[in-house]
Write a structure and sequence with these properties.
Elements: H1 5-19, E1 53-56, H2 70-76, E2 81-84, H3 101-119, E3 124-129, H4 131-142, E4 149-155, H5 177-184, H6 186-189, H7 196-202, E5 212-217, E6 237-241, H8 242-245, H9 253-258, H10 261-271
Parallel strand pairs: 1-2, 1-3, 3-4, 4-5, 5-6
Helix pairs in contact: 3-4
């Protein structure tokens, strides 16, 4: 049966918006910029913070808008901070992370090499939101990242995919819709629970040796569902539920990466565990 385009074009944007990160207003340029001190390739890590931090945005995010909260937060604390655009589609400005996850992981590999060459550091730390918390695991497992990354901190990461509270099952009701998404925005279909990409990623275990993993999730996540599928299993994993730190925190999928100071504080603790301080509702 041929694809019913009117139905497919209704479902696809809905899934895109649900799986992706709805960010603030787009930046003025379709490329990373130096903003509030980050993406400064002359920055040299200090003795206190010897590793640069690479930020990986979520689906439909970009290297600037996704990090208007966290990047300045980390720069203020003395980190060299960098962010990349990945998963771009031709003719689609600002809204990235739509390309195939494996290709995005290869882009991350190139970017990390650039950051390490500029800073002189032997390893980096990565903080990612949504797809940006999962995609680096492909880099670690399949593209040489394990020797170059000290820690991966995921904010609401799609580590085991999402069922969108059951909405992904609606694809079966629209003949050709799944094939359309696979072809036009594979970064979306790669994040559906049970995808080939996720099966390969998680086959043999969630982690690779030598990397410290932190997952920060919120029980109010409406995008990566069920939220507990974000958590990892392994010998060097710290899984955190935001509401265990601050019961009154109501942040959902977008807010945890864009503006949640409790999540930011816990991410900073993961970057510098030797100097971690308790994360509470009053975190700043």
């Amino acid at each position: 049966m041929k694809l019913c385009w009117s139905r497919a074009l209704t479902v696809v944007p809905t899934l895109a918006l649900a799986v992706g990160l709805v960010t603030a207003a787009p930046a003025s340029a379709d490329a990373p910029t130096v903003s509030s001190g980050w993406n400064n390739f002359s920055c040299k890590p200090s003795a206190a913070h010897p590793r640069p931090v690479v930020l990986a945005h979520g689906t439909l995010g970009n290297a600037v808008d996704n990090w208007l909260g966290l990047a300045p937060y980390l720069v203020h604390r003395g980190y060299c901070v960098f962010s990349l655009d990945y998963g771009q589609l031709p003719g689609v400005p600002f809204f990235h992370g739509l390309g195939a996850v494996d290709a995005s992981a290869r882009q991350l590999a190139v970017y990390v090499d650039r950051v390490l060459a500029a800073t002189g550091a032997p390893r980096t730390d990565i903080v990612g939101h949504s797809q940006g918390g999962m995609m680096p695991r492909v880099y670690l497992k399949s593209h040489g990242g394990a020797d170059k990354v000290n820690a991966l901190i995921g904010l609401a990461p799609s580590n085991h995919g999402t069922d969108l509270n059951g909405l992904t099952r609606l694809l079966d009701q629209f003949p050709g819709a799944k094939e359309y998404i696979d072809a036009s925005a594979p970064g979306l279909s790669d994040q559906i629970a049970g995808s080939d990409t996720l099966n390969r990623l998680n086959d043999g275990g969630d982690t690779v040796p030598g990397v410290h993993y932190t997952v920060i999730a919120t029980r109010y996540d409406e995008v990566v569902t069920p939220y507990r599928t974000q958590f990892l299993e392994g010998p060097d994993v710290h899984n955190v539920l935001l509401q265990d730190l601050c019961p009154s925190d109501r942040s959902e999928h977008v807010a945890i990466g864009l503006a949640d100071r409790v999540a930011f504080h816990e991410a900073a603790n993961a970057l510098d565990p030797a100097h971690a301080t308790p994360t509470t509702c009053d975190a700043n």
